[in-house]
Specification:
The chain is mostly beta strands. Helices cover 0% and strands 44% of the residues. Strands 1-42-39-38 form a four-stranded antiparallel β-sheet, with no helix packed on it. A four-stranded antiparallel β-sheet has the order 3-4-2-5, with no helix packed on it. The radius of gyration is 20 Å and the shape is globular.
Length: 388
């Protein structure tokens, strides 16, 4: 039975942790928007960051509940003082976050911070990021050496010039720019980075920019540690999300665009890292893609759309690379497909896919901001754990 199930959350102004992967279930009490779902496995737990419409201050945080195996507000009573946009685990006990915040715990943190799971403390990364009209960190990634790449809208990193993307080296506690960075104008101004993917020693960057390293790249580019290069002729509009399939040698790209490499590719496309070529995923999707996740049975896309491959599919859909076809995610109990409102993020753990966004129902079932999809489960999509 293919079914959706709901997820429950407490009102928080900081990251919280889902601590029972074995239950594979979530529920939410409130109907706040989840702007993005960053789901990662780290230290044996599944970590979600809830990003919009959240109040701040100590009173915003739920106290730990005895015998509660659902959400755990383990990141301390102070947390972050503004929105979190991205989260990624480090190579050790670190968890890095980026967003609009200025403090993390009691530490100064200019848009980026680190949580140490051993010491349960927050720390900033040097002097952090700053500059620009509306500075924020929007994307974050870590390479095999433990270096942290942060993208967004800013002009300085550690007090030095860095246009919208920079690297933090924990070994030296220093920031460095990636060449001339990325920008919307040929003068090196404007633009933003929305997503970063690390593949070996290559750093793939997507967003709202036309130039990388001062050369026309059209919304997507690659940094090899020395210089910037384009991915063919790029795209014709902004990138929202990148997702790397290292086994297949592909970078899946979602966003607002309708062409990739000069050929039709509606809102989602794949870049072949070995063949240096773009390919469409069928006839694509009829509106914006905000989230992509790799799954055991295909590529899952979430966004604000009503058709995929020319067929009805509301907000979430699956691409089968074997049959080269799209399918909607219709709940086997209700018969309803996805949601008619926004899905902002996707994540996968094992054979279960998670969607997060501005919805209050998914597949005809109540789901306030986050829901799971299990393509092989043969039980009803019941609420997860006890009511809060």
């Amino acid at each position: 039975m293919k079914a959706f199930s709901s997820a429950n959350r407490r009102r928080v102004a900081m990251p919280i942790v889902w601590t029972s992967l074995s239950q594979n279930r979530l529920r939410f009490c409130r109907k706040d928007v989840v702007r993005s779902l960053s789901g990662i496995l780290s230290q044996g737990v599944f970590i979600f960051f809830l990003l919009l419409g959240l109040s701040v201050g100590r009173s915003a945080f739920a106290a730990s509940v005895p015998d509660d195996v659902n959400w755990d507000d383990k990141f301390g009573p102070v947390g972050l003082d503004n929105t979190v946009n991205a989260v990624v685990p480090g190579n050790g006990t670190e968890i890095y976050v980026a967003g609009k915040f200025g403090t993390a715990g009691k530490a100064n943190a200019g848009l980026v911070a680190m949580w140490d799971t051993d010491t349960s403390t927050w720390s900033g990364l040097g002097n952090g990021l700053s500059g620009g009209n509306f500075p924020e960190g929007r994307a974050i990634a870590v390479d095999a050496a433990g270096n942290v790449y942060v993208g967004g809208t800013f002009t300085t990193a550690g007090g030095n010039s860095a246009q919208n993307i920079a690297k933090w080296e924990p070994s030296t506690s220093a920031w460095s720019a990636l060449g001339a960075g990325v920008a919307y104008t040929s003068y090196g101004t404007g633009g933003t980075v929305n997503s970063i993917e690390v593949v070996g020693t290559d750093i793939y960057v997507g967003g709202y920019f036309l130039y990388a390293g001062g050369v026309s790249r059209n919304y997507i580019a690659k940094w090899d540690g020395i210089s910037w290069s384009g991915l063919g002729s790029g795209l014709n509009s902004a990138v929202v999300v990148l997702e790397a399939d290292t086994d297949a040698g592909k970078i899946y790209v979602g966003g607002y665009f309708t062409t990739a490499g000069g050929t039709s590719a509606n809102r989602i496309a794949a870049w072949d890292t070995a063949g240096y070529s773009w390919s469409a995923l069928g006839s694509g999707i009829n509106d914006t893609v905000y989230g992509i996740s790799l799954h055991d049975d295909g590529i899952y896309a979430g966004g604000y759309f009503t058709t995929t491959g020319g067929n009805a599919a509301n907000g979430v859909a699956k691409w089968d690379s074997t049959s080269s076809s799209w399918s909607a995610l219709a709940d086997s109990e209700t018969g309803e497909e996805g949601t008619t409102t926004y899905v902002y993020g996707m994540a996968s753990v094992g054979n279960v896919a998670y969607a997060a966004g501005a919805f209050h129902q998914m597949g005809g079932k109540a789901a306030a901001g986050i829901a799971e999809w299990d393509p092989i489960e043969e039980r009803p999509g019941l609420p997860l754990a006890a009511a809060c």
